[in-house]
Amino acid sequence: MNDYIMGRSAEETRRLELQSRLYAGHSRHLLELAGITTGMTVLDVGCGTGEVTRIVARLVGPSGHVVAVDADEEMLAVAARNMAEAGLHHVSFRRATLPGLPSARPVDALVGRLILMHLDDPVDAVRTMARHVRPGGIVTFQDFDVSRSRTVPSVPLLDRVLGWLAEAIRAGGRDSDPGGRLYSILRDAGLPAPRVATTAPGGDADSEVVALAAATLTTLMPLIGKSRRAVIDEIGADVLLDRLRGDMRAANALMFAPELVGAWTRTPLST
Ligand SMILES: C[S@@+](CC[C@H](N)C(=O)[O-])C[C@H]1O[C@@H](n2cnc3c(N)ncnc32)[C@H](O)[C@@H]1O
């Protein structure tokens, strides 16, 4: 199985939940643009704690069905609990290592958020997974452009931290800006030219947008370079978030979280 560079822990599960909360409306918008609607059967690949699963389940309604897939039992258990708590019973869960998928009847749509960057060969993965979609069905993925995150006006320490996050992702052998590559990934996988859109939450010093940046830095700490870690150690990792918030307040600044890019297309009607 491919390495998941963010690691697997209760802390990472909480970080994913925070991230999901911040991007929920944004993901829903991109899924609506992609055409996910009432009555569809949908595969959600790399479902994590099930935030996209929940959005899709609401969009398709009880006349539709969602199959949520992840390699991690703990993620699947949290996702199943979240769906039960939300009263969404038209969802089933499968454990699988992508691009492998449980065989079943072709679905109306294949969706995945923040998953392609974790796979070694995204083009081959999309090609393989798209075979599970009926002719004329939807294939849509969402992913981040981490280097598009910024502060306005610039807050130097936070801008440095944002740069380190992109660096750390690359140090982990992953693309820090896979969002902008979704278009070519879907095309190279043999699908018709996708449509694309981008969106990002922003917030002030006290917002969860800043908390997410600090939590992501904590998660990625093992991949942060020595010289950068020395800066963090000098400030103190436990007070870094307070320091970032203080710098933002002093500059009356706004921070934009990484941009979320959506790309969507339909499988050909005949081959
Ligand atoms: C960043 S999370 C995204 C979760 C969810 N899609 C979301 O947007 O909130 C990536 C998820 O993909 C799963 N994952 C990573 N590599 C995988 C693989 N090769 N097969 C199946 N799941 C994988 C991880 O366990 C994790 O739950």
What's a concise summary of this model?
The protein is 42% helix and 21% strand. The protein is of the alpha/beta class and 271 residues long.
Contiguous runs where pLDDT drops below 50 for at least 5 residues: none
CATH class membership: Alpha Beta
Count of separate DSSP helical elements: 9
Question: What share of residues are in beta strands?
Answer: 15-25%
Instruction: Calculate the mean pLDDT score and round it.
Output: 92
Write down the domain tally: 1
Write up what this structure looks like:
The chain is an alpha/beta fold. The chain has one domain (10-266): Vaccinia Virus protein VP39 (Rossmann fold), CATH 3.40.50. It contains nine helices and ten strands. It has helices spanning 10-34, 51-60, 73-85, 122-130, 156-171, 182-188, 208-220, 226-235, 240-251, and strands at 41-45, 65-70, 91-95, 107-113, 133-145, 150-152, 195-199, 202-203, 254-256, 259-266. The protein has a seven-stranded mixed sheet with strand order 3-2-1-4-5-10-7, sandwiched between helices. It has a three-stranded antiparallel sheet with strand order 6-9-8, covered by helices on one side. β2 (65-70), α3 (73-85) and β3 (91-95) form a beta-alpha-beta unit. The two termini are 31 Å apart. The model has no long low-confidence stretch (mean pLDDT 92). S-adenosylmethionine binds at residues 1-2, 4, 16, 20, 46-48, 51-52, 70-72, 75, 97-98, 113-115, 118-119. Residues 1-2, 4, 16, 20, 46-48, 51-52, 70-72, 75, 97-98, 113-115, 118-119 line the site of S-adenosylmethionine.
